Amino acid sequence: MAEQSLTMDELSVIVTAILCGTIARAWILKEDYRQYPSYPNGFLIHIIIGFVAASLGAVAIPALMTKNFIAVTFLTLALQQFRDVRKMEKESLSDLENTEYTYRGEAYIDGIAKTFESRNYLAFITAFTVSLTITILSISQWVDIAIGIVVGFVALYCLKQFTKGKTIGDIADVEEGKVEIRDSSLYVDDIYVSNLLGTENSEKMFREEGMAVVIYPKEDHFRINLDNFGQRQAALFEATRALGNKRFHFTRKEYEKGRVVIALIPIKQEIDSLIEVVKKCPLIESAKKSHSVMNTNLKGEK
Amino acid sequence: MGRESSMKPDYQILAYITMDKNRLLASSCLSLYAETEQDSKEMTVDIAKALKADVVKMTNGDYLVVRV
Questions:
Q1: A300 lies in a domain?
Q2: Which of A87, A220, A227, A274 lies deepest, with the highest CB count within 10 Å?
Q3: Chain B residues with beta carbon closer than 8 angstroms to that of A249
Q4: Residue A234 covered by a domain
Q5: Per-residue pLDDT tens digits of chain A, which is 302 residues long
Q6: A184 to chain B: which residues are within 8 Å by CB?
């Protein structure tokens, strides 16, 4: 019986690692201008899942140390659980699609769900690193714990930098566009956008309250990302989500220079916020292309 | 309202309002004839409001009530 109960050392390893993992999850769980996850229920759900992830990472090393190899098979359970997190996020966001001002789009939802899944791995790896460091070191208990915590958070910082995504602002300039209506058609900086403004009311409304931004890719190959339908939809979604949407929202790409237009009638009339929100819109993973890969000589063609 | 969520846009023409009887051919959507420009505008706006749809003014002066 005595062999089965935890020693104080093991307990301190596990508790420290769990705490570090959970704090790590809470640290990377930020509610920003994207208003997601919604406070407080979304927060609670993800912190609890993060706690479970941290627990799995924390007990792996003590389980191995006590030659309890079967217990390590629960790591497969962890994988399953994290995949379920992705599925849960995906389903939940897909269910909300028809209630938002505009659609997030499948590509964006996929990106968000993947991020949530990967952040659980971050909590898991942080807890695992803390647990491993404390177990390996044998200076004195408190020093081991302190070093373990530091190593855990260094690992977290590195992983955070690694998983950090880019935004539209990194690859393109976003500027205010001049809204014009000619013969019931909407033009922004002379780019045709839509002819859905057929009535005088809608024309008047767009002329008075309509706002538009134009995205200029910094380099030609960035057009591949920006022209992606999911990417434009994500930018439009962020714009309507941040500023509200009274009526009408359009995106349009222009073929000559690769400019992308986002036009809408927002509730909040703040052009600076609109520019900022489009700049900060994340580049979705499925649209991301690595330009350097294109130059490699994989097939010996050069 | 310019929703472009799917790669296959689901456009639907709900009504066509014209001032030229020759353009009224058999169609699946509601096709209406208006005597005057004012008439056609009013009819279009009324239908669009009722169906919560958008309006396209064609170059020839006819109106389309569409849902995007």
A1: no
A2: A274
A3: 1-3
A4: yes
A5: 445 677 888 888 899 999 999 999 888 887 555 556 667 788 888 889 899 999 988 988 888 888 878 877 878 888 888 888 889 889 988 888 888 888 888 888 888 888 888 888 899 999 999 999 998 888 888 898 999 999 999 999 998 888 887 889 988 999 999 999 988 899 999 999 998 888 888 899 999 999 999 999 998 888 888 888 888 989 999 999 889 999 889 999 988 888 999 999 999 999 999 999 999 998 887 777 666 655 555 555 44
A6: 56-57
Contact B54 A198 (CB under 8 A): yes
Tokens of A182: 């000619």
Q: Are residues A179 and A239 in the same domain?
A: yes
Owning domain of residue B16: 12-67
Locate the DSSP E strands across B1-68: 12-18, 30-33, 54-57, 63-67
CA distances from A170 to A25, A150, A246 (A): 26, 31, 29
Q: How many domains does chain B have?
A: 1
Which among A198, A229, A248 has the least Cβ separation from residue B56?
A: A198
How high is the ipTM of this complex? Answer: 0.78
Residue linked to tokens 């700049």: A279
Rounded to whole angstroms, the Cα distance separating A88 from B2 reads 29
